[in-house]
Specification:
The complex is a heterodimer of chains A (122) and B (108). Chain A is mainly beta and 122 residues long. Helices cover 0% and strands 56% of the residues of chain A. Chain B has no helices and ten strands. Chain B is globular, with a radius of gyration of 13 Å. Classes of the chains: A mainly beta (122), B mainly beta (108).
Chain lengths: 122, 108
């Protein structure tokens, strides 16, 4: 079955960087884009970025451009997100989610990884 | 503020029908997808491509769309449907994606 397994929780100090992973299995990795979505404690979902797992092309939310980098490793079917210059507001659960789309009119995310909690605290 | 607007909270009596709405100009062009999230869990897709359900999602969940509003209807709500529900769509002005603020559904 299709599965996305994310790396474990991280605790970082302000100003540090963190790199999270999302390992895909059960499908052809390069056939789907992968999104990253985060959720601050008690808050809603926030879209961050998407990567084309075939050619590595990326699109970032304007808010995160220059501070977030998404990459992939096709040999291990793994997508990574690196967040730099961490601040307390980056404390959140980070999810990866596989992209689906049809005819440039509809997109959906399924499945989702289990999430990785990143805590930024001095 | 998000491009997609949802009511923060909705309640429904057990076994009754409830509609959760999502408004945004991008919904005139793009279909919404809907996600259910229970405390401490990752979101789960419940409706996609206007009104399709993934396998395993009960048929009491349905979707519809009209103008700038997408709706998720739960017909005969069950206690296990109590959760946060999020709509999502592509952004109106480019390749980015947005989520509504979420609706907390309480089954009483």
């Amino acid at each position: 079955q299709v599965q996305l397994v994310q790396s474990g929780a991280e605790v970082k100090k302000p100003g540090a960087s963190v790199k999270l992973s999302c390992k895909a299995s059960g499908y052809t990795f390069t056939s789907h884009y992968m999104h990253w979505v985060r959720q601050a404690p008690g808050q809603g979902l926030e879209w961050m970025a998407v990567i084309n797992c075939n050619d590595g092309g990326t699109i970032y939310a304007q808010k995160f451009q220059g501070r977030v980098t998404v990459t992939r490793d096709t040999s291990t079917s793994t997508v990574y997100i690196e967040v730099n210059s961490l601040r307390s507001e980056d404390t959140a659960e980070y999810f990866c989610a596989r992209d689906h789309s049809r005819e440039e009119t509809t997109w959906w995310f399924d499945p989702w990884g289990q999430g990785t909690l990143v805590t930024v605290s001095s | 503020s998000s491009e997609l607007t949802q009511d923060p909270a909705v309640s429904v009596a057990l076994g009754q029908t409830v509609r959760i709405t999502c408004q945004g100009d991008n919904l005139r062009t793009f279909y919404a997808s809907w996600y259910q999230q229970k405390p401490g869990q990752a979101p789960v897709l419940v409706i996609y491509d206007k009104n399709n359900r993934p396998s395993g999602i009960p048929d009491r969940f349905s979707g519809s769309s009209s103008g700038n509003t997408a709706s998720l209807t739960v017909t005969g709500a069950q206690a296990e449907d109590e959760a946060d529900y999020y709509c999502s769509s592509r952004g109106i002005s480019g390749y980015y994606w947005v989520f509504g603020g979420g609706t907390k559904l309480t089954v009483v």
